[in-house]
Amino acid sequence: MTIRTLVWGENVHEQMNKTVAEIYPEGMHNQIAKLLAIDSNLSVKTTTLQEPEHGLTDKVLDDTDVLVWWGHRAHGDVADEIVERVAKRVWEGMGLIVLHSGHFSKIFKRLMGSPCALHWREAGERERLWVVNPGHPIAKGLPAYFELENEEMYGEPFSVPEPLETIFISWFQGGEVFRSGLTYRKGAGNVFYFRPGHETYPTYHDATVGLVLRNAVNWAYNANRYPELNTAPNVPVEKAIEPITARGGSLHEAGEEGFR
Q1: Are 48 and 55 in contact (CB under 8 A)?
Q2: 38, 95, 125, 147: most buried by Cβ count inside 10 Å?
Q3: DSSP string, the chain
Q4: Residue 52, exposed/middle/buried by CB under 10 A (0-12, 13-18, 19+)?
C-alpha cells in the first residue's frame, strides 16, 4: 500500500521575506515533503498556489489520498471553485492535514463551518506540546511532550467545533495554552489540524514534527471513496427495497423539482 500524498504550499512568503527564504531555500512545501518522504509508505508530491487551478485539478485530486495544506498570506487568493472541489473530495474520503495558519484557510473554514479564530503573538517563544492522547496513532513514538524553541503563539479560545479527538495541547512561554492537534471526520474524510509551523522559524526542520506529520498522513488515509455522500438522488417507488405503494401528494407529480 502506497499513500499518495500531496503537499500544497502557498509559496508566497518564500518569495517575499528574506528570513523565510533562508530557512526554506527550496520552499516550505518541499521541506515538508522531505519530512514525509522519510516514510517509504508515502509517495509524496508538491504543488503550489501559483500553478494552474492552484495545482488542484480534478486529475490531481483523483491521484491524491491525503492532502497536506499550508497557507497564510494568500488565503483570499484561493478560488472558491477550488475550495469546493477539495471539500467535495474530503467528504468522499480524501484525508486532509491542515497546518498552522491554515486554520484561517478557506478550506478549513468551509469544513469547520465556524470562524476558526484565535489569539496570536509573533515573539519566537518556546512552545511545549503535551501529548494528551498518547494511545492515538498520530502520537505513535512520541514522548510525553516535546518542545520547539521558537514558535508563534496561538492562544485560546479557538473557535472551531468540538473535535473528535484532541491529541496535543501547547503551552507557550508567555503563559497561553492552545489545542494544537485536533481530529475531525467530515463525511468519509479524516481531517487533522496541527498548529506548529510559523514560516519565520525552522519548525519543519524538526525531527519530531516530521514524525507527527508522517503519523498524521498514515492516520488520515482512507482507501475507499464514497461519492454518493455529495449527491441527493431520488429513489423511485419501484426501486424501494421493500414493495410499497405511493400515497399522498407529490411535488414531482405537479411538475416541480422540490428541494433537489
Answers
A1: yes
A2: 95
A3: --EEEEEEE---HHHH-HHHHHH-TT-HHHHHHHHHHTSTTEEEEEEETTSGGGG--HHHHHT-SEEEEE-STTGGGS-HHHHHHHHHHHHHT-EEEEEGGGGGSHHHHHHHTS----EEEEEEEEEEEEES-TTSGGGTT--SEEEEEEEEEEES---SPPPSEEEEEEEETTS-EEEEEEEEEETTEEEEEE----TTS-GGG-HHHHHHHHHHHHHH--S---GGGG------GGG-SS-----S--TTTTT--TT-
A4: exposed
Lookup: cell for 192: 487533522
Query: Could you give the CA distance from residue 71 to residue 102 in angstroms, rounded to a whole number?
Result: 5
- pLDDT tens column, 68-120: 999 999 999 999 999 999 999 999 999 999 999 999 999 999 999 999 999 99
Give the model confidence (pLDDT) of 179-200 as tens digits: 999 999 999 999 999 999 999 9
Contact 89, 119 (CB under 8 A): no
